[in-house]
Amino acid sequence: KTLLEEVERALAKGQIRPWFQPQLCTSTGAISGVEALARWLHPERGIVPPVEFLTALEEAGQLDRLSEVMLDHSLSALRRWDETGLAIPRVSVNFSDVELRNPRLVTRLKWELDRFGLPASRLGVEVLETVIADAPEGVVARNITALSQLGCQIDLDDFGTGHASITALRRFAVHRLKIDRSFVTRVDRDEEQRRMLAAVLGLADRLGLETVAEGVESVAEHALLAQLGCDHVQGFGIARPMPADQLADWARGYA
Ligand code: G
Ligand code: G
Ligand code: NA
Ligand code: MN
Hints:
Layout: H1 3-13, E1 16-25, E2 31-42, E3 46-48, H2 51-59, H3 63-83, E4 91-95, H4 97-100, H5 105-116, E5 123-128, H6 129-134, H7 139-150, E6 153-159, H8 166-171, E7 176-179, H9 181-184, H10 191-206, E8 210-213, H11 219-227, E9 232-233, H12 244-254
Parallel strand pairs: 2-4, 4-5, 5-6, 6-7, 7-8, 8-9
Antiparallel strand pairs: 1-2, 1-9, 2-3
Helix pairs in contact: 3-5
């Protein structure tokens, strides 16, 4: 069997599903949302990360099947958390450039939200910085604008690595910059790193964009990010990605 056949079968069997990693607001300490990250729960190989199956799906033009599963499970998890009284404000799902070029994307997301009775404000859409850098006009821009108008929060992923222009940031109705892990690592111990991070945070502030730091691994990094005015933090130092039930337990313990 090819990898693609295996992945397709895993999707059909429900072996691929989102795990969730929390994000915290640095000023209140509250959970500001969770990011959904695809995991293949392989019966023999254990947990398979997305790098090992995203490319196969993309090359076969099957990425929309993954995002359907991711959206479905993410929104249903959010509903369940709501029903058990947990305050998880939002779930953010990653969308690739292929999916962002789909002219039916907005209709599909709207339909999914309606199906779960959730307002668009509860859904975050993570878009790679490279996507808006490479596609300034056309269907990608229209999709992102429409999603933003619908009420979804647009997060620009891996910011600082993709050369998006300032004008692109404005034109694309982005709400938050997710500052790439490479700017965050060892920021408490490296003066040069701290200056770079402060510059990025300053840019976001001037543009009126919120910031999320990725890859926060220590209490010292967390504290420094808060001090520098970064709005949200996400990383192994707070919690690793985990299944929906475990996220609920974690959030209950955290509150
Ligand atoms: O979870 P992990 O660090 O292994 O994720 C690796 C990469 O895979 C990240 O860049 C993440 O954005 C991407 N990824 C995770 N889940 C999905 C998904 O459902 N769809 C897409 N397009 N990318 C995803
Ligand atoms: O590209 P994107 O930002 O979507 O990728 C998120 C990936 O980063 C996930 O696969 C997640 O497992 C990983 N990740 C999350 N927090 C940390 C962290 O603190 N350190 C490292 N090394 N990876 C992290
Ligand atoms: Na992401
Ligand atoms: Mn990222």
